[in-house]
Structure formats: structure tokens, C-alpha cells
Design a protein that fits this description.
The complex is a heterodimer.
Chain A: H1 2-25
Chain B: H1 11-19, H2 25-42, H3 47-67, H4 71-74, H5 76-99, H6 105-120, H7 129-151
Helix pairs in contact in B: 1-2, 2-3, 5-6, 6-7
Chain lengths: 27, 156
């Protein structure tokens, strides 16, 4: 479960980063 | 949603956003954008922080939808001027009260909110030396006058 948890966490982090980048690009 | 302890340093920026929700949605938007960017640097690993930041991002995206046609949101340079003017307006109000020897909660809050909004300016890039000084002075003054009023001293 440790490695699965970590990969879920980093996937969500990546998604947050790309959403933030998209929000800023549209500015 | 309760703010996780790891993100406590953005709580006042988020509160300022709430206070400006209707008064000035552009200020609310950029306070949340600053909180989002800062929050991701602070902790986007622990589940409760990630959950909080996802909610904050949802809020930012829906604000973006609502305010999208506002130049202050669609053009960074306009947004920068909007926030900077607003911050300096708050700073000048508090500074005038201070020089007139009128010490009260409103002027303390104006100094403090001005310092928070100068933090928010950093979403547009490096702060100017002048704004760094303004921010330092405003935060110091807010703390100094607050402590004086608490102990019953007259601020100088």
C-alpha cells in the first residue's frame, strides 16, 4: 500500500500543478 | 473545510479573500491564487493538505469562470496594478490615521491587510524594494500599535 499511496499522492500533486499552470496560462 | 496546520501561514490571506468575496472579487481571486501557490510549496504531500488544495483549486477555477471577462483577471499586468493600488490605498489610510495620532482597530487591520496584499503581489513576480519596505513597515506598525493598545500604552 505504501508505494500505491505514494504514486496516488504524486499523481494528484502533478494534477494540481497542471491545473494551476492552466489557470495562470489563461490569465 | 478546516485549514491543515501545515498551511497555517496562508490562513490570513484566505480570510482576506473571504472578506473581499463581494466587496472586491479580484482581490479575493488573487489572495486565493497566492494561497494556492504558497500552499503547494508548503505541503502538497500529506492527504489533508492535498485535499484542502484541491478544494481551493476548484474554487479558483470557478471564480475564474465567473470573472473571466474582467481585465484584472485575464491580463496579469492589469491584475498587478489592481492589487498594488488597493494595497497602497489601505496602507495610506492607515498611515494617515497613524500620523494624525488616531490609533484604532481599523487602522491596525488596514496596515495588516496591506502587508498581506503586498505578499499577494508576489504572484506577479519579484516585489520592488519599495513594496518590500512598505510590507515590512506595515506589518511592524500593525503589531506595534496592536500591542500598545493591548497594554494601554500610547503608540508613538
Amino acid at each position: 500500500t505504501g508505494s500505491v499511496g505514494t504514486s496516488v499522492a504524486s499523481a494528484e500533486q502533478d494534477e494540481l500543478s497542471s491545473r494551476l499552470a492552466k489557470l495562470r496560462d489563461q490569465m | 473545510m478546516a485549514l491543515p496546520a501545515q498551511l497555517r501561514s496562508i490562513q490570513h490571506h484566505l480570510r482576506t479573500a473571504q472578506e473581499h468575496e463581494n466587496r472586491d472579487p479580484v482581490v479575493a481571486y488573487y489572495c486565493r491564487l497566492y494561497a494556492m501557490q504558497t500552499g503547494m510549496k508548503l505541503d502538497s504531500k500529506t492527504p489533508e493538505c492535498r485535499k484542502f488544495l484541491v478544494k481551493l483549486m476548484d474554487q479558483l477555477e470557478s471564480m475564474k469562470q465567473e470573472l473571466g471577462d474582467n481585465d484584472s483577471i485575464s491580463q496579469e499586468v492589469v491584475g498587478n496594478a489592481h492589487i498594488e493600488n488597493y494595497a497602497l490605498k489601505m496602507f495610506l489610510y492607515a498611515d494617515n490615521e497613524d500620523r494624525a495620532g488616531r490609533f484604532h482597530k481599523n487602522m491596525i487591520k488596514s496596515f495588516y491587510t496591506a502587508s498581506l496584499l503586498l505578499d499577494v503581489l508576489s504572484v506577479f513576480g519579484e516585489l520592488s524594494e519599495e513594496n518590500i519596505q512598505h510590507r515590512k513597515y506595515a506589518r511592524w506598525k500593525a503589531t506595534y500599535v496592536h500591542n500598545c493598545l493591548k497594554t494601554g500604552e500610547t503608540p508613538v
